[in-house]
Design a protein that fits this description.
Distance between the termini: 6 Å
CATH topology: Alpha-Beta Plaits
Shape: globular
Number of strands: 6
Helix content: 25-40%
Number of helices: 3
Structural class: alpha+beta
Radius of gyration: 14 Å
Strand order of the largest sheet: 2-3-1-4
CATH architecture: 2-Layer Sandwich
Strand content: 35-45%
Length: 105
């Protein structure tokens, strides 16, 4: 499994309400996206940085999503270049599933 952290530095801070509206407008694009397990939208406390934490089945699925079209769309929405960091995810603790600890496939 692969985890990606995507961050954008905004030209001006956004409130939690503003961030929520932005995120809600894009969330449907990620529903049933091949290879995506889960996505969390995030906003820093000062409202100057936003982004997402994605859990992918494979790095290839993540790279397919973060293509040129995606980068253009998010640049227009957030006004800056996305910073994408990839992490291998060898172990997961899931407290919603009874605290299970699993090795990622």
């Amino acid at each position: 499994m692969i985890t990606t952290v995507v961050q954008f530095v905004l030209s001006h801070p956004v409130t939690l309400e503003e961030a929520s509206k932005m995120f809600e407008s894009t969330a449907p694009r990620y529903r049933n996206l091949p290879g995506l397990v889960r996505k969390y939208y995030v906003r820093s406390e000062d409202g100057r940085r936003v982004g997402g934490i994605y859990f992918w089945e494979t790095k290839a699925a993540a790279e397919k999503c973060f293509n040129g079209e995606w980068q253009t769309r998010v640049r227009l929405l957030y006004g800056g270049e996305p910073q994408i960091t990839y992490f291998e995810t060898p172990v997961i603790v899931d407290n919603l599933a009874g605290g299970s600890i699993t090795k990622a496939a």
